[in-house]
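Quick one:
INPUT:
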């Protein structure tokens, strides 16, 4: 099982010229090893790519994604990451989606598939990150 970050799904669904091939290949590789998981935060971030909920649900099914609610422990861990971010000079007042996604992967002890590793590396020590420069 791997938690799929929003950017990977967007790359494929929008046929991003730079990242679509990498994201498609990684999704195929990881789906052969187990479920591709997303949570409500990833779904909410991905939905603007679709004009209707029905179309988003068709894409969800086509990708073979597994839905998992975000555990409360992950929500709390995301708040701790956000506090660190603020103490380091971050200006965003509300918890960032990357913190919610990264904390979910950390608490459930699954790797995260992303191409934007910066916040995950900085705020979630020990999190297995599958990104272009690592795998």
């Amino acid at each position: 099982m791997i938690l799929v970050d929003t950017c990977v799904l967007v790359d494929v669904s929008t046929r991003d010229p730079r990242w679509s091939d990498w994201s498609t290949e990684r999704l195929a590789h990881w789906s052969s090893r187990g479920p591709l998981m997303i949570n409500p935060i990833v779904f909410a971030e991905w939905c603007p790519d679709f004009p209707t909920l029905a179309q988003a649900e068709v894409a969800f099914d086509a990708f073979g994604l597994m839905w998992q609610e975000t555990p409360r422990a992950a929500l709390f861990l995301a708040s701790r990451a956000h506090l660190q971010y603020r103490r380091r000079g971050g200006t965003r007042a509300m918890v960032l989606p990357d913190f919610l996604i990264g904390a979910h992967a950390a608490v459930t002890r699954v790797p995260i598939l992303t191409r934007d590793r910066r916040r995950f590396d900085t705020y979630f020590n020990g999190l297995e990150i599958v990104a272009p420069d690592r795998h």
